[in-house]
Amino acid sequence: MSGWLKPQIRISLVLLLVVLISACGFRLRGFIELPAELQPLYITSQGGAGNLAATLSRQLQQSGVLITTQSATSRLRLELRDFGSSERQVVFGKVEEFELTLQVSADARDQQGEPLFSDEVFITQRQYTRDDNLLARDSLRNELLRSMENDLIRQLTLKTQALTYENRVQ
User: Fold this and answer.
1) pTM for the structure as a whole
2) Nearest Cα to 53, choosing from 100, 104, 87?
């Protein structure tokens, strides 16, 4: 036997590991699961939240969630609005540190138009040190903004997933 393990044993171990991981409910990061009773989902946006709504819709579709373009056929209606960002300096002196904030308001309504949550505000913040290099600074800021948008999407999906649990408990 040359090598540590025969190729057949290595393949068997890898397959066993894959089965064990999938059996424990492991999901890839970014995978979003929405219960069937909340699908299809209709997403609308106002007040600058269009890009966030489009990204949310795309990520949900990639995870297998049914998205509809017609409000009348949806079981859940999610409205995003008042998307905004701000930046402020939090540390002064030789090293300049800034805080970025993103926020969006959201409403969710069921098939009959009854509110499931209303005027819920989702906020995310990050701090960063401003670099003298303009390209590095812009790149870091854009990367932070993408990460923060993903955080808002995660907050929105967790709140939406919790709707099913809340409805079962009541």
Assistant:
1) 0.73
2) 104
